[in-house]
């Protein structure tokens, strides 16, 4: 028997990946969230966090000893060299943890949710790519409301991500999340049924 289908779910910032993955989790599907893994590898006391503090200074460490993600984000999204340094440190650690979690997933198919799925070697972990898509104006308004970020910062984050056209070109399935939640529910139901069929056919 071949291993379960591995599905990558991605989308630009503010596209609503988590709304899709939450609906799949409620159906018993195991989801590995790359954002959660990225937080775990830099937890207080980790060697990665120690290296980040040495490189960027104490201003990226909050009073409780955890990473001040907002402070770090401001630095790395205004300086590509600093972002590259951070990625070289964290990406191998994140990849290792993701591979381990996908290997032990026991559901009909397993999901990797990652904003950097298509920009990194993480795409090698998956067999089928789902892109959650919204217009860029929706990305900006949702992210500003959710994270209380300036439009300038949101646009800088979007500029650092793969372009919308490139993401859509790489997709095996596209979920349009610009409408009402009822429309999203219908699309996720259809996606789930499709993925069950693809997994059963392996």
UniProtKB/TrEMBL annotation:
Catalytic reaction annotation: 3'-dephospho-CoA + ATP = ADP + CoA + H(+)
Classification via CDD domains: DPCK
Keyword S-adenosyl-L-methionine: no
EC number(s) from the headed UniProt entry: 2.7.1.24
Highest taxon above the source species: Bacteria
Chief place of localization: cytoplasm
Single annotated GO MF: dephospho-CoA kinase activity
Cited PROSITE patterns: DPCK
Localisation per UniProt entry: Cytoplasm
Top EC class of this enzyme: transferase
Classification via InterPro entries: Depp_CoAkinase, P-loop_NTPase
Keywords assigned by UniProt, alphabetized: ATP-binding, Coenzyme A biosynthesis, Cytoplasm, Kinase, Nucleotide-binding, Transferase
Described function: Catalyzes the phosphorylation of the 3'-hydroxyl group of dephosphocoenzyme A to form coenzyme A.
Similarity field: Belongs to the CoaE family.
Protein name (Swiss-Prot/TrEMBL): Dephospho-CoA kinase
Source organism of the structure: Congregibacter variabilis
């Amino acid at each position: 028997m071949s291993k379960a289908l591995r599905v990558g779910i991605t989308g630009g910032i503010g596209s609503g990946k988590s709304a899709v993955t939450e609906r799949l989790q409620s159906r018993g599907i195991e989801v590995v969230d790359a954002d959660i893994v990225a937080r775990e590898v830099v937890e207080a006391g980790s060697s990665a966090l120690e290296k980040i503090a040495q490189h960027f200074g104490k201003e990226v460490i909050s009073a409780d000893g955890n990473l001040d993600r907002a402070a770090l984000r401001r630095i790395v999204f205004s300086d590509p060299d600093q972002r590259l340094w951070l990625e070289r440190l964290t990406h191998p650690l994140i990849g290792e943890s993701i591979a381990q979690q996908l290997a032990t997933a026991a559901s009909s198919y397993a999901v990797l949710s990652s904003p950097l799925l298509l920009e990194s070697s993480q795409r090698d972990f998956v067999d089928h790519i789902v892109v959650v898509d919204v217009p860029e104006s929706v990305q900006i308004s949702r992210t500003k409301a959710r994270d209380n970020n300036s439009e300038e910062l949101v646009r800088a984050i979007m500029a650092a991500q793969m372009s919308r056209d490139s993401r859509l070109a790489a997709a095996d399935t596209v979920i349009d999340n610009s409408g009402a939640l009822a429309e999203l529910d219908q699309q996720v139901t259809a996606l789930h049924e499709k993925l069950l069929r693809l997994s059963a056919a392996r």
